[in-house]
């Protein structure tokens, strides 16, 4: 992975907020590769050629619902982590076709090189009452993975902008646990209720708040698309282009995973469902050329989200 500039200089015994942010991004990137064979194979190909991937952003899904168990509703469960790490809101995107709102967070210290987070919230109130009841049954068992000690360290990080090495090493694995499923195994009946109205909520039911995708920032997206398709990789057919024309995105289709569901009689059944996926993006500089366009596009995002509509 390409490491942002500036990390060759550090303060002994201390870890800055941007260093913790970079470490968390790398841990979550590795976690996704362990779950997404197509992304792992692509990354291994890049490494074999002597190249490096450039992690542009990672994406996760949340549910803004007040019957969420012990887990704070929606993106609040993650802004309490991202803000102490130095992230600031960079854009808000209405994803009305899928009943969601997306928000991007860029790092204040190095926004062009440290990966952004794209955090989406699903709004159950926009769906049927039966759907909402199923959401409650699934999410009401949620636990809060952040211990009081971790919350204390986040407060100190927000206040001081750094932690001791030992505290940072203690905090990082606790932050990693937040990016997973915090609720109990759903029943197959509830999963099917959710799937009938929202592929995104059905995905959350099995995968929780795990990284939905990570993204490699590349120079020539069209060429990459042709190359990956020629290799037989599960490539999205079309490249999504933002309204500005400066942002282009495509992705592999989600790799399938086997998940367990309750059968409603005290037992379990297994089913193949969509897992996470690997995305690609290219970004041009803004019109005046002073900055890289770090924005997102609602149309692009909703099209990319379809990668988890079904297992390939």
UniProtKB/TrEMBL annotation:
Its cofactor is Fe(2+). GO terms for molecular function: dioxygenase activity. CDD domains: VOC_like (cd16349). Transmembrane segments: none annotated. Its EC number is 1.13.11.93. The keyword NAD does not apply. Keywords: Dioxygenase, Iron, Oxidoreductase. The keyword Iron applies. It comes from the Bacteria. Belongs to the 2-oxoadipate dioxygenase/decarboxylase family. This is 2-oxoadipate dioxygenase/decarboxylase.
